[in-house]
Amino acid sequence: MSDLVGLFPYWAVIILMMTGLYIVIAQGNLVKKLIGLGIFQVSVFVLYIAIGVVDGATPPILSPGFNSYSNPLPSVLILTAIVVGVATLAVGLALAVRIRESFGTIEEEDLLPLTVPELPPEPEARP
Amino acid sequence: MIAQHAAVLVVVLPLLCAPLVALLRDARIAGAAVLIIAALDAALATLLLCQTLDGTVISYALGNWAPPIGIEYRIDLLAAAMACLLSYAATLVALFLPVSLRGTIAPGDQPRLFAAFLLCLAGLVGIVVTGDIFNVFVFLEISSLSTYVLIAMGAGADRRALTAAFDYLVLGATGATFFVIGIAFLYVVTGTLNMADLGERMATAPKRAVIVGSSFIFVGIALKAAMLPLHRWMPNAYAYAPAGIGTFLAMTATKVSIYLLIRMSDFVFDTPGEIGRVNFAALLPPIGLAMLVAGSVIAVTTKDLRRLLAYSSIANLGLMLVALGLGGIAGIAAALVNLFNHAIIKGGMFATTAAVLHRRGTTRMDALAGLSRDMPVAFGFLVLGGLALIGVPLTAGFVSKLLVVKLAFEQANWLVVGGVMLTSLITVAYVWRIVEAGMAAPAKTAPRHDLHPAFLLPVGLLGAATIGLGIWSEPMLTLAGRIAAQMIGGAP
Amino acid sequence: METLLMIGLLAALGALAVTIAFMDDLLVVTMLSGIFSFTCCAIFVLFDAPDVAFTEACVGAGVSTVLTLAAIRLTGRREKRVGRRASAVGLIVSTICGLALVYGTLELPRFGDPLAPANQHVAPHYLNESAAEIGIPNVITSVLGSYRGYDTMGETVVVFTAALGVLMLLGGSQARPLRRGDAPARADRDVILRSIATLFVPMTLFLAPYVQFHGAYSPGGGFQAGAIFGGAMILYGLVFGIDRLNKLVPERVLKVIAALGVLTYGGTGLVTLALGHQFLDYDALSPRPSGQQIGLTAIEFGVFMTVTCVMILLFQRFASRRSEP
């Protein structure tokens, strides 16, 4: 029983992560895929921060009167990962915009017949 | 001072020159700058190789914080050799990149493309020299983000470059997230991010967390290494990227993933001790064999030269995985010889293809007609590369295939022996298709117009290396043997 | 009490994630994912990670949402429903991965266990020694800027790479500038919005330097300050029109400053090299701990420059693109 309480946050986060992964795999809309990717990544951030929690501790900002602090390292790693996430999102969205402009759609199933290797090369129209 | 700090300069030089190059306005100056920077980087990497040749392991504490408190650059012979491969590849590609971009990318956009190329190089070199597992992720992202954009730049010639880049972005980002999840599991049971420290502390860590952590890292790397069944992004990426970029990626990107597998098999996947031992080596031969056969078969059916070469690369990656899976010093050595030789052979073929694309505007098989007459030099180098892919004696391909077959023979692994033999036959089929397409009579006679001079040096050097390493294979074999011995001996 | 709050927040996140998976209006989905991010911020605060909460609020919930909205304007709002087969694959893969992860957690240290290896091996050094070695109270800033400062440099480069990538994809010869009248600023209609923005934009701009320079003592630092400053400028552009924002901070200026930010960070490292120390060893600048603080200030400033300019630049590129061909 104590196991269940002690591991519950991890399991909840795993469910969130997998919902994100499901959106990435299952959804055909490219922007929706990116949003799913975002949920997947943010859930992983929660997992990391959950690792660093110490019972009864305070945030790792040293001050007299406290002697138990949470682990600073996961926070640092996630600060990095958050920025990486938004960078990937920006590039992905820019690609989605260009795909929409060249192909007229951002739905995977509509793009598939337009991108088969057998088609002759078609340069993108210059704006 | 440079010798003392070469470990970090080899990454920082291209990394910090990229913003400067991005601000340049003149495409020609930017192109020349990239060539100089890449060449300097190659010199630094060579210096590192010289420093590590005697078995020294360079440990460079960034910020002067001793590992595992701070981030460590840890350069052994393997890392130095990989850094050499990456920077030499970049230098050779930089020789012809400006020429191959002409006509498909507006001159005003080119400096930014060159900057992204430098970032990609810096990211890849950063992955191979670091000894910190989270630092791997950061530099993986630098190289990945720039790779996505570089591939998309092929849209000037074919709009499918955009979807190829997007598919790679989604897969790559998912793979990177898997990698990060894996790091989380290893961190929570060991408390460290330094790979050497991780290897030591994993021996006493809970087994399940280690298994799951390593598995997620493995899947993350497998995505990047185009391992079956996660290979789908690769042929598109190579076929639609600008030709020079495709050449660079073919020589480096998947090779770095194989490097990560070798590195992690030392630190993460195969830690000695009674617990925490996850035997991924057993998984590799079946996956490798499947890639070997599937890649070769699909290569026979493709209608585009670059796509053909990409599927052939999947087959060759399969061969490396098979060698790695055979295990031991000899297995790692065979995988490394395959890795370096394949980078040279395939680099030469992709560079030649870029030259053909530059003259003809397409690499479709049916458009290659008359190549043997109009571009005899290019055709010659393509055939040379093809022979090496088959594994004809006196080429580098023969040496690397022989190593794998010999090793499998010793272990009486007849499946591998048979698989390699069979795919050599299939390789004959697809190489013959190139020859046949090139010898076909053209619809209309074009004037003889061979390689643009910019391509001569890279294509010639890579071609010469293909033959040279076939005839005089000793140095490569010795190097690979030493690296493998250091990896196995150096394992905690 | 905290446990109950945590359970509630996690349940809310689950509901949001599932809703996002089944909604086909991308505008709604984007707003929900913004709310998802904000809820995560609450969890980060609960889990003693205010710095992360701060950054996620600025970057994850703020900038990401605005960028996605700006992209949806160009790609269309409605999503087409997908077939059943694709969903089955997704379900199988994510279930397998989820079960694997649950299996991996079974032997993990319990949530909040102070004796967990993660809290025992490297982290105590940061908590116990950073006061003497770096001399500032915010341990996260110490680790981010000094102990793992090299990672942070890589992260700044990632931000720069994103801007470079978006400029390559949507800028230069690929730009589709708005025509006159494409994005009218509605001076007559948005009175309330404008009044509030007039109040908020300067306040937010003033908050940024505080977050920047107080990062040593409280949650904050270059990333957060940059995202706040950039966010304020984005708000200005949203309310008063993208043309005015483009005029106020032209793209070529932003490009130069973004590159200079990376060079400031890397340059600090090169200076320490030139002084005969390791790369990014701030002790080269002055004896400990003041050298560390000088170094931290320098690199945080570089981060601020890059992040601010890149955030504005990204928004400009998406928002000032013509939607119809």
Brief overview, please?
The complex is a heterotrimer of chains A (about 130), B (about 500) and C (about 325). Chain B has helices spanning about 1-25, 25-50, 75-100, 110-130, 135-150, 160-190, 195-200, 205-225, 235-240, 245-270, 285-300, 305-325, 330-360, 370-375, 375-390, 395-410, 415-440, 455-470, 475-490, and strands spanning about 60, 70-75. With about 500 residues, chain B is mostly helical.
Summarize the helices and strands and which ones pair or pack:
The complex is a heterotrimer of chains A (127), B (492) and C (325).
Chain A: H1 2-26, H2 30-52, H3 72-103, H4 108-114
Helix pairs in contact in A: 1-2, 2-3
Chain B: H1 2-23, H2 27-52, E1 58-61, E2 72-75, H3 77-101, H4 110-129, H5 133-152, H6 160-190, H7 195-202, H8 207-224, H9 233-240, H10 243-269, H11 284-301, H12 305-326, H13 328-360, H14 371-374, H15 376-390, H16 396-410, H17 414-439, H18 453-471, H19 474-490
Antiparallel strand pairs in B: 1-2
Helix pairs in contact in B: 1-2, 1-4, 2-3, 2-4, 3-4, 3-10, 3-13, 3-18, 4-5, 4-10, 5-6, 6-8, 6-9, 7-10, 8-10, 9-10, 9-12, 10-12, 10-13, 11-12, 11-17, 12-13, 12-16, 12-17, 13-15, 13-16, 13-18, 13-19, 15-17, 15-18, 16-17, 16-18
Chain C: H1 2-22, H2 26-46, H3 50-75, H4 84-105, H5 117-120, H6 123-133, H7 139-147, H8 149-170, H9 191-213, H10 222-240, H11 242-248, H12 251-274, H13 290-319
